[in-house]
Every structure is written in C-alpha cells, then in structure tokens.
C-alpha cells in the first residue's frame, strides 16, 4: 500500500514538474526570433523600436500591442529583451500556480494531455493568453465551492488571489484587446467573492491588477501620466476591427466551434450539485471566453481561426479538470475534432510535425538558455547582423532629419539606421476609424512631422489603394516633394515653407443610395471624396457580435475600364483620393507633375453596394467632393 501511494505521489510530482517546465518554455522566449521583412514582422519590430525610443504608447504609438508585446511576438530587441524574459517568466509562474491548484486532484492523464497540447499544438499565443483569465476564474470557483476547496486557509486564498489576479495587469500591456476579458472576469470574481462574504479577496482581485499594471507600465519606461491614455487608445482599435479587418472563411469551422461551446455551457448548467450562484459565475466566465475566442478566430477568418481551435481545446481540458461530469470525455473528443478540423485547413499538422513541435518547444528553450549563459551578446550580435541583411536588401540611403515610411515595411526603415519618426498608427492598414486617421493626419501638421517620407502604394484585402491613410495624401502632396525614386519607393522631402493655400476645396455635397451610379466631376485637378456610410442598429449589433457585411465600390473609368475594390466606412468617412485612380507608387509620383499624365486613370462615376446583407446599413449615404489644390507642380520626370 505504501509503495503504491509513493508511486502515485511520485507520478504527481513528475507530471507537475513537467507542466511547470512546459509552461516556462511556452511563455518565456528564451530563444527569440529575429526581425524579418513583411507586413506583420514590420509592426513587430516597430513596437519594440518604439519602446527603445521612449515613444509613449497611447499617444505617440497607437496600436493593438503595448510595451510588453515581445512576450507575444517572441521577437528579440536589445531594448525589450529584459522585459520579454522577466514578464514572460512572471506570467509563466502565475499560469502554473493556477494550473497546479486546478489539477491537484485531477487524473495525471488529463494533466499530461494538457502538457502535450501546450508543447505540440500551441500555434496560437492569443488562445493561451485568453485561457489565463478563464483559468483564474476556475481557481475562484474552486476556492468557494466547498466540495472542491483544497486550500489551506483564508489567508492563503487571499495571497493566491493577489498573485493570480496581478497578472491581469500585465496581459493588456502585452496586447490591448486582452483588457476586455480581464476586466469582465475580474468583475465577476469580485461579485462572487463579495456575495460569498469573502470581502478581503474581493478587494484583492480588484486592487492587485491595477497596482501591478502600473508597476509594469513604469518599469517599461512609460510615464505614469500616460497610463490612462494607453487604455483609452484601445477603444477605436477594438471598435473598428470587426468591419475593417474582416475576411470570410470556412463556415464549417464556425458551426463546429459553436456546437462544442454550447455543449460545454449546457454541461455546466446541468451541474445541479453546484450552488446556483457559482454555476452562474463559471457559466458567465466560459461564455465570455468563448465569445472572445469566436471573435478572435472568425472575424478575420484565415489562420486566425486557430485562435478558436486552440481555445476550444484548452476549454475542454480545463472543464475536465474542474468538473466530474460524465460529459467531460465526450467534450474532450468533440473539442479535439474541432481543433483537427480547423488545423486541417490552415496548418495541416502531421504526426511528424506534431512531435517536431514538442521537440522544438523544449530544445529551443534549452538552446536559448545555454546561449544566454555562454555568451551574453549572442542574440544582440545576431540582431545586428539581421538588421544589416535587411538594410542591404532595401538599400535605403541615410536621410537628413527624421523619416517615416508608408504604408508599412517598418523593418526596412528601422534597419536602414535612419531616425524613425512614425505616425501614431504606424501601419496604415490599421488606421481604420476616423479618429485614428485624424491622429495620423494631425501628425503631419504638427511640429513633429517627419522631415522625410519613404512612400509606397500598398494595401491589403483588396481595398481601394488610396483609402489607407487617405486623408493624409493631400497633405503629403502639398507639404512634401519628391527627391528620388528607388526600388519602387518614392522618397519625399518636407518643403521648407508649407503652402499657404488650402489643399482641399469643396465642390459638391450630395446624398445617394446603394446601387446609384454617382457621377464624378471631370477635371484635371485630383478629386477627393468623403463618403459617410452608416450602420443601422442591426449592423451595429452585428459589428459587436460578429462582423458586419463588407462594402465594395465599383469605379467606372473614362477609358471604359471597370474596377471593383473593398472600402471601409471609417476610412471612407475621412476621405480618400478618388480620381485619378492611383494603383501604384509611380502613379502617385505622377500626381506631382499634374497635366494629363493620368488621363487614362480618371474616374467617370462610381457606385457602392454591400457585398451581402445590405439590411445592416442605412439606405442612403452622403458624399462630399473636393478638389486637391496643388500649390505648384513639380517636374519629376527624371525620377523614373
């Protein structure tokens, strides 16, 4: 009997040690990645560079991510490496503590399954971050439920509450959208503790995240005065995301996810042995978790669907840890089916790649620790060499003064050793609300405007090219002049004297309905439009719950060519250059010469229609037509 008990205890210890090591390997980027070129790698290095330059998040930099973004991106930068390691390790310890108390009475097989899922299937760090607030809510559930209360005394519970909820203060500084789940779970925990007469714990769960968030904020080099601005800046980013970044995907993924989520929620509801208030609490925690995983996975329905796939798998495992329901085995099988279904469309994990992922999880961490121990400049040297390679590829010259780049490719600019002076929303495709676009426009009008702009026309998701930072185009055309054209980039220099004339002149204001063919003034001067398209109540509800139907604009050119593009209502409201149609950087450069160089790209008329459900939008929309007044033409024929 003693031998059997010893083996059981020994096995528990081994599994918990393996769980701790695995959590550390997943959360702590011991072996970080290096900068790369491209759209996503550009914002990755941009956020790190912003931290190094002391730019203020929420004012100078407005983006989805905060000063601890490197924990999420696992990307190395000398200025953020210590934040990445320390923050990742803190999060790993908190995650493991919550798991330890949750799995203490669970079968070793379930715990081992969780280890395997973390080590071999963790394709989505979003899902992992989402799972932490749910994990902590289960800790609260068990600490109150008399049948599951495995803790020593009330003082220990208070201490653990402080530790576990303090990590809620770090998650939004990694990625701002984590704030929603953290705040809701925190409020739910406060209510359940308060109504169960655990007032000290109720206070602890509210105070500890705020205090730790402030500490982490200040440690990252940010000013305490700007702390509220960071969270306020998340409002337009979160509210505008569903329309601007939405793309369609495979509907089966959505159906399978919703079925399993519903099964888990029903199973929780049917746990009649649990007091009603606790069931409501944990039901609400799982519900908001599923809702945000659904939004994260299926609004931008491409590889992001893995957020939903991994989330449902983690939820099923946490459900199995927490409830002794007969449903748990079926839930685990169903969730694994959903994960495999989503994985088969985007990752296609094979048996060899699965075991390769497990091996990589541990060996990458081991090599990272070893390299850091043997040579404390190993990663910094690799970082410098990588930037030199990017610089050699882009071949950007050193420019006098400060420089910004449109619309993305921050990697090239930062690697070029020019002084980076980004607009607040430094990736143009992310400036998708009127408020965000205005901040970028005002940056060009401020005394901190860049001395140089490296410009390239590039867009995503089939949007009309001139719509990204479209409100800034007239300012760029009037306040900057071209100096060279190299490698498909137009190099612009700020004029010594800003033009005294207004860059835009209102010429017509009218209302139209979807499907109307809207005539455009035929003029040698570029035509700028501001289009106000509004969602109705149904559309606003869909924007919150899922995503609204997309809008498309059809352009009828004077040469008989028809072009169809996607437009975003927030971007269209702020305005964009409509005629001539600019589709590449050379054509943008030709605007400086005026005349008839772009005659074949003039737009004769256009029409706007929702792609699918037009009932989500108000039937009529307003259009303001303006002329872009160029104070002087510039002979740049020798640039090309």
Any descriptors?
alpha+beta, five-stranded mixed β-sheet, 53% helix, four-stranded antiparallel β-sheet, 23 helices, 640 residues
Describe the structure.
It contains 23 helices and 13 strands. By secondary structure, it is of the alpha+beta class. The strands form three sheets. The protein has a five-stranded mixed sheet with strand order 2-1-3-5-4. It has a four-stranded antiparallel sheet with strand order 6-13-8-11. Strands 7-12-9-10 form a four-stranded antiparallel sheet.
Oligomer: single chain
Count of spatially separate domains: 2
**Which outline best applies?**
globular
Distance from N terminus to C terminus (CA atoms, Å) equals: 86 Å
Low-confidence stretches: none
Secondary structural class:
alpha+beta
Largest sheet: 5 strands, mixed
Q: Could you give the order of strands across the largest sheet?
A: 2-1-3-5-4
- The share of residues in extended strands comes to 5-15%
Report the total helices.
Answer: 23
Strand runs, count? 13
Which bin fits the share of residues in helices?
A: 40-55%
Global mean pLDDT? 91
CA radius of gyration is: 27 Å
């Amino acid at each position: 009997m003693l031998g059997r008990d010893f083996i059981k205890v020994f096995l528990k210890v081994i599994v918990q040690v393996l769980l701790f090591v695995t959590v550390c390997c997943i959360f702590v980027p011991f072996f970080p990645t290096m900068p790369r070129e491209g759209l996503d790698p550009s914002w990755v290095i941009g956020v790190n560079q912003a931290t190094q330059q002391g730019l203020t998040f929420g004012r100078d930099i407005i983006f989805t991510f905060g000063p601890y973004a490197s924990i999420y991106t696992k990307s190395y930068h000398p200025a953020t490496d210590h934040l990445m390691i320390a923050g990742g390790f803190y999060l790993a310890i908190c995650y493991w503590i919550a798991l330890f108390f949750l799995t203490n009475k669970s079968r070793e097989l379930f715990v081992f399954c969780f280890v395997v899922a973390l080590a071999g299937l963790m394709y989505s760090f979003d899902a992992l971050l989402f799972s932490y607030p749910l994990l902590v809510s289960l800790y609260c559930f068990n600490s109150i439920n008399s049948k599951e209360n495995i803790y020593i005394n009330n003082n220990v519970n208070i201490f653990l509450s402080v530790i576990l909820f303090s990590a809620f203060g770090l998650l939004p500084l990694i990625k701002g959208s984590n704030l929603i789940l953290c705040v809701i779970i925190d409020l739910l925990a406060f209510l359940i503790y308060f109504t169960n007469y655990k007032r000290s714990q109720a206070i602890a769960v509210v105070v500890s995240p705020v205090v730790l968030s402030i500490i982490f904020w200040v440690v990252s080099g940010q000013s305490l005065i700007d702390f509220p601005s960071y969270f306020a800046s998340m409002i337009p980013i979160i509210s505008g995301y569903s329309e601007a970044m939405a793309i369609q995907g495979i509907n089966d993924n959505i159906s399978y996810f919703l079925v399993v989520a519903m099964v888990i929620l029903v199973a929780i509801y049917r746990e009649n042995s649990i007091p009603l208030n606790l069931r409501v609490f944990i039901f609400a925690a799982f519900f908001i978790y599923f809702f945000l995983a659904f939004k994260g996975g299926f609004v931008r329905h491409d590889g992001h669907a893995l957020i939903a796939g991994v989330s449902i798998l983690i939820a099923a495992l946490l459900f199995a840890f927490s409830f002794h329901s007969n449903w748990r085995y079926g839930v685990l099988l169903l969730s694994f089916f959903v994960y495999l279904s989503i994985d088969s469309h985007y990752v296609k994990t094979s048996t060899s790649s699965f075991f390769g992922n497990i091996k990589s999880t541990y060996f990458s961490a081991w090599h990272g620790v070893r390299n850091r121990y043997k040579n404390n400049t190993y990663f910094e040297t690799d970082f410098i060499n990588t930037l030199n390679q990017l610089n050699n590829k882009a071949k950007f010259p050193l420019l006098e003064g400060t420089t910004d780049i449109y619309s993305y490719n921050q990697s090239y600019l930062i690697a070029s050793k020019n002084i980076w002076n980004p607009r607040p929303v430094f990736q143009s495709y992310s400036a998708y609300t009127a408020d965000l676009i205005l901040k970028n426009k005002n940056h060009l009008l401020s005394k901190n405007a860049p001395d140089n702009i490296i410009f390239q026309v590039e867009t995503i998701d089939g949007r009309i090219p001139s719509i990204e930072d479209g409100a800034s185009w007239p300012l760029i055309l009037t306040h900057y002049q071209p100096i060279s054209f190299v490698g498909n980039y137009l190099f612009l220099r700020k004029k010594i004297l800003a033009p005294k004339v207004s860059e835009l002149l209102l010429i017509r204001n009218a209302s139209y309905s979807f499907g109307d063919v809207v005539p455009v003034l035929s003029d040698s001067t570029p035509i700028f439009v501001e289009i106000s398209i509004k969602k109705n109540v149904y559309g606003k509800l869909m924007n919150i719950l899922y995503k609204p139907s997309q809008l498309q604009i059809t352009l009828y050119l004077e040469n008989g060519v028809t072009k169809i593009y996607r437009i975003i209502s927030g971007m269209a409201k702020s305005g964009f250059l409509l005629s001539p149609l600019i589709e590449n950087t050379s054509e943008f450069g030709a605007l400086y010469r005026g005349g008839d160089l772009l005659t074949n790209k003039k737009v004769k008329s256009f029409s706007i229609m929702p792609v699918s459900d037009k009932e989500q939008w108000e039937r009529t929309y307003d259009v303001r037509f303006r002329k872009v007044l160029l104070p002087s033409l510039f002979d740049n024929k020798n640039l090309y």
